[in-house]
């Protein structure tokens, strides 16, 4: 039992080393370095806020504090996009570790998702800064919901990565297809616009998208203290948990032949 515990401890250290190395290498040769982790989503926010703030203002839609809703939604979606892209490409990008050195392949995938999580934590500084600037204090329940949804996003990222990382080694078109789907998800989720402007039947369809569900209720919780019903929240957590467990079985089945296809 002690040997098993020590083995898992070593794996945790390995995952952390891989994640830190990826994070450092990503910004190593850039002039602004780690600032890009904050600057990229912030620039996107500034453009979208400039274009849409007058369209989706409180007088027209009831969407108060539009800039706070937009920056929060963008950072959360950026976390999902960065994490899924990195997780999918993780095994192929670390092909030498897969083929030449014995490293548990799941540690490579987890490390890539942690790297995206580190960037997300840096982006939280921007979100907090905007709330301080606007002098708006969300409720304690809303902050807890935000933390829960952030964790559920990470679970979705890991599940997606376990599903797709072994497949991407064989089918290199997956990343391009996913980037297109991410762009569709960006505009199909209530990030730029409030969900309330859409017909009720369309709202139900959009909320079937897990990121749309998370983003909508995060915005509503932080700004309006409007939370999902308990059955909605528990049902959503259950679905994410089931998807996560299924991804583990999928990874176990698909990862056995990864080295043969790199």
Features:
262 residues, mainly alpha
Question: What's the order of the H and E elements?
Answer: HHHHHHHHHHHH
Instruction: Point out poorly predicted stretches.
Output: 1-6, 58-62
What structural class should be given to the helix and strand makeup?
mainly alpha
Q: What is the helix fraction of residues, given as a range?
A: over 70%
**What number of structural domains do the residues give?**
1
Q: How many DSSP-defined strands? A: 0
* Beta-strand residue percentage: under 5%
- Radius of gyration (CA) equals 20 Å
Number of helices: 12
The chain-level mean pLDDT equals 84
Amino-to-carboxy terminus distance? 35 Å
Please outline the major beta sheet. Answer: none
Based on Cα principal axes, name the global outline: globular
């Amino acid at each position: 039992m002690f040997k098993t515990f020590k083995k898992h401890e070593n794996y945790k250290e390995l995952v952390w080393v891989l994640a830190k190395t990826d994070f450092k290498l990503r910004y190593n040769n850039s002039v602004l370095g780690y600032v890009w982790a904050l600057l990229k989503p912030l620039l996107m926010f500034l453009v979208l806020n400039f274009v849409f703030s007058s369209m989706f203002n409180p007088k027209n839609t009831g969407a108060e504090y539009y800039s706070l809703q937009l920056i929060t939604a963008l950072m959360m979606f950026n976390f999902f996009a960065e994490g899924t892209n990195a997780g999918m490409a993780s095994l192929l990008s670390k092909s030498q570790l897969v083929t030449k050195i014995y490293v548990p392949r799941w540690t490579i995938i987890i490390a890539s998702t942690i790297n995206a999580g580190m960037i997300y934590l840096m982006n939280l500084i921007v979100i907090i800064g905007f709330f301080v600037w606007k002098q708006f204090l969300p409720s304690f329940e809303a902050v807890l919901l935000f933390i829960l949804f952030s964790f559920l996003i990470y679970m979705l990222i890991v599940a997606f990565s376990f599903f797709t990382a072994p497949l991407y080694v064989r089918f290199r078109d997956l990343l391009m297809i996913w980037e297109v789907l991410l762009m569709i998800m960006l505009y199909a989720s209530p990030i730029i616009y409030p969900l309330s402007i859409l017909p009720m039947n369309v709202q139900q369809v959009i909320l079937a998208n897990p990121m749309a569900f998370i983003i909508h209720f995060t915005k509503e919780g932080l700004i309006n203290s409007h939370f999902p019903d308990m059955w909605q929240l528990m049902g959503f957590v259950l679905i994410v948990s089931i998807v996560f467990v299924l991804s583990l079985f999928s990874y176990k089945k698909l990862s056995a032949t990864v080295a043969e296809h790199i």
